[in-house]
Amino acid sequence: MNKALAAGLTSVHCVVDQPQHMQVLQAMNRQGQLKLRIYLLITDEWLNLATGMGISTGFGDGMLRIQAIKIFTDGSLGAHTAALEQPYSDEPSSTGVLIHSQDELNTTVQTAARNGLQVAIHAIGDRAIAMALTAIENANLTIPRSKELRHRIEHASVLNRSLIERIRQSKVIASVQPHFITSDAWIPERVGSERAKLVYPLKSLKNAGAKMVAGSDCPIEPIDPLEGICAAVSSAPDTYGERVDPETAIKMFTKNAAYATHEEKLKGTIEEGKLADLVILDRDPLTVAPEEIHKIRVMATIVNGRLVFASERFRSMRVSNVRGLLSRRRS
Questions:
Q1: What backbone torsions phi and psi does residue 29 show, to the nearest 5 degrees?
Q2: 241 falls in which pLDDT band (50, 70, 90)?
Q3: Which of 22, 47, 222, 305 is the most exposed place for a label (fewest CB within 10 A)?
Q4: How far is residue 1 from each of residues 33, 36, 177, 237, 298, measured CA to CA in Å?
Q5: For residue 183, is pLDDT > 50?
Q6: Which residue would you say has higher pLDDT here, 326 or 130?
Q7: DSSP output for 80-145
């Protein structure tokens, strides 16, 4: 929590799969020890238990709430377990691993949607993404208000033009991790140069009108959102023209992230009447060179109007300002 605050985060989406996690977080919340807002993604193993108790998206309060059901459909590109339509270029005998059949996935998503629960489906390979979209599309067709739950696909890594269009049409949120672009420089070798053109195609998703939110996938990648913003604007393969502008990247971590939690009227932008969840930076990410964004430092983090993190530099500035104000008053 302290590392997140030092990185300028005021809200996090956190996957939990152990009862102890819930117990500790609830105890901290009761005691007023949560310093940032935590949105829980509970695993699909808890789906029937949650629906049996009448729990739906938004259950909780302003600091701790249940947001979505997390469903895994495949593995990772690094381990050759992301489910692909065609074999891996560097391992032609494998197309990855599927965790659920299409029928199983359909049933899980329909159960969640019928009970008012958003789903966040882990899908990295194009085959897994297609299955996730099919399950969400079926739920949207058969269950009233399913689309209003704003279902998500986590990672949505290996895409193609058809999948991008389906994401747009079904109003599915593409929850991406831009820092993977920096970490996974071996992607062209793994999936081939042609498929690599649409691995994390941020600009293509934007141009199609798809809603994108961005995260870190911490602890796999750095928790710092400025690292992710920097990757989105300077590390996306320029050969394929998939970099986005800084304003778009910032919105993915702020305004669009608030949309993903149905809170765009409460947070995500600095406006009168919205929650005072703010971060003070030492430089403006809209004006510095794109490759310099990750060097910006967080001066202070404010959650609900309360200062919850202050850097040494910020604390010294505050002391200096107070002393200056007192000296002027004396004079």
A1: -65, -45
A2: confident
A3: 305
A4: 10, 7, 20, 32, 15
A5: yes
A6: 130
A7: T-S--SS-BTTBTT-----SS-HHHHHHHHHHHHHTT-EEEEEE-SHHHHHHHHHHHHHHHHHSTT
Half-sphere CA count of 199, side-chain side, radius 13 A: 27
Task: Name the token pair of 86.
Answer: 């065609």
Structure tokens at 162: 């058809």
Question: Any idea what DSSP says for residue 199?
Answer: B
Cα 97 to Cα 73: distance, rounded to the nearest angstrom: 8
> Using alpha carbons only, how large is the chain's radius of gyration in Å?
21
Q: In whole angstroms, how far apart are CA 48 and each of 85, 133, 263? A: 31, 22, 26
Give residue 236's pLDDT. 59
**pLDDT tens readout for residues 36-93:** 999 999 999 999 999 999 999 999 999 999 999 999 999 999 999 999 999 999 999 9
Q: Three-state DSSP class for 308? A: strand
The kind and range of the H/E element at 17 are: none
Q: Write the CB contacts of 246 (distance below 8 Å, at least 6 apart in sequence).
A: 229, 233, 285, 286, 290, 293
| DSSP H or E segment with residue 164 | helix 161-169
* Domains, the chain: 2-270 (3.20.20.140)
Greatest distance between any 2 Cα atoms in the chain: 81
Residue 221's alpha-carbon distances to 118, 124, 211, 326, in angstroms, are: 25, 16, 22, 45
Whether the CA torsion 183, 251, 167, 55 is positive or negative: it is positive
